[in-house]
Design brief:
Elements lengths: L1 H17 L1 H4 L3 H12 L9 H4 L9 H7 L1 H8 L21 H4 L2 H5 L3 E2 L5 E2 L6 H6 L6 H8 L21 H6 L27 H4 L9 H7 L26 H24 L3 E3 L7 E3 L23 H14 L4 H4 L1 H15 L14
Helix pairs in contact: 5-6, 14-15, 14-17, 15-17
Length: 361
């Protein structure tokens, strides 16, 4: 209780500096905002997102922009430094708080450049969200790594490319920012427009709790009790014949099928079994006992999968892309369906795998 009181005083002080008018609001309203923030992911100072570097005593410059409030302030240039870069390591245990978003620099941020080099402008208040929820890799990253290599030759220098986490903005903007691996010769959809009342981050997510206003979704999408049951597309994209399930179900079935195809490809083409551990970096490991599961003993860095072919790496990257945006079915279902479908089609050139014959978006 005492630690929360201390943190609340710190938050109020931050509010006073960042927005004097807000600091003078009714104390009950302020308390509600602080409580909401403390209970949300951005305020969880015990989270690995803010404690991963505790042993080092500082968050490195390459991570600080999104994993420490001082780092984000540095990135924005709100501390008087040059904007667009972090100049020094940042404090640990410093979650994203009021001063991250309630500064002049944050309010004026309107454009963000993605890992592909593509920029998106006119973002408005969604810009501060986009700055961190864009991932750290792109189609271009993968393409550059495998350029000139035989699609099905094991290359010892290749390693898994992780898109990073919570990549909602990369999903939302689709082909324009190339967050997923986009296969040559295939077209991909761009930004998912949705409707004007649900067109940016804070239209759907409460800025302090990050919770989704599901009642707003269900007021338009009638006949369902939860947002995962919303359809948004009318085709049968996973080939199971069920056109009544939500688009979330279509995506999850395709992603599961892709995971199975990745395992089969590794076993048959590289002859080195692979497995996936969702919560342990770098996620893909050698399945040393070939039982199809990655045990805690196998999910260790020295046992990371090291028998990548370009074809396998592309498919695994897209599998992870779909996995690391659990809201992809809302953010841009067409884009993710295309990535999963094309990844399956690529693997099917070498192994026997069912690829839905229906249209891919």
């Amino acid at each position: 209780m005492w630690s929360q009181c201390i943190r609340r005083i710190a938050v109020i002080a931050t509010l006073a500096l960042a927005s004097p008018a807000l600091a003078q609001d009714d104390d009950a309203a302020l308390s509600a905002i602080v409580a909401a923030w403390l209970a949300a992911p951005h305020g969880d100072y015990r989270s690995p997102a803010f404690t991963y570097w505790n042993a080092e005593g500082e968050v490195p410059t390459s991570c600080a922009a999104c994993h420490s409030q001082p780092g984000f302030i540095d990135y924005l240039g709100a501390d008087g430094s040059a904007a667009g870069a972090v100049d020094a390591p940042a404090a640990i245990n410093a979650p994203i708080g009021c001063a991250s978003c309630h500064t002049t620099a944050a309010h004026e941020l309107d454009a963000v450049t993605f890992p592909s080099g593509a920029s998106v402008t006119a973002l408005g208040e969604a810009a501060v969200c986009t700055a961190c929820h864009q991932g750290r890799a792109s189609s271009d990253t993968v393409a550059a790594r495998v350029e000139g290599l035989d699609e099905d030759a094991v290359v010892s220098e290749l390693g898994f490319i992780n898109v990073h986490y919570a990549v909602a903005a990369a999903t939302l903007h689709g082909a324009h920012v190339r967050g997923g691996y986009q296969y040559a010769g295939r077209d991909y959809v761009g930004r998912f427009p949705h409707v004007p009342s649900a067109s940016n981050c804070t239209s759907c997510h409460d800025p302090h709790t990050t919770r989704v206003a599901t009642e707003t979704c269900l007021s338009c999408h009638r006949g369902v009790d939860e947002i995962t049951a919303i359809r948004t597309r009318h085709g049968d994209f996973d080939g199971d014949g069920n056109t009544a399930e939500g688009i979330h179900g279509e995506i999850e079935t395709l992603r599961a099928r892709l995971g199975e195809a990745i395992v089969r490809y590794a076993a048959e083409v590289t002859e080195r079994p692979i497995g996936y551990a969702a919560d342990t970096f770098p996620y893909f490991f050698a399945d040393s006992d070939g039982n199809g599961d990655i045990s805690p003993d196998e999910a260790v860095f020295p046992n990371r999968y090291q028998s990548w072919t370009p074809r396998l790496l592309k498919a695994a990257y897209n599998y992870q892309f779909a996995k690391k945006d659990p809201g992809a079915y809302v953010h841009n279902p067409g884009y993710v369906l295309q990535l999963l479908h094309d990844s399956l089609a690529s693997l099917a050139q070498r192994i026997e795998v069912e690829v839905p014959s229906i249209r891919r978006q």
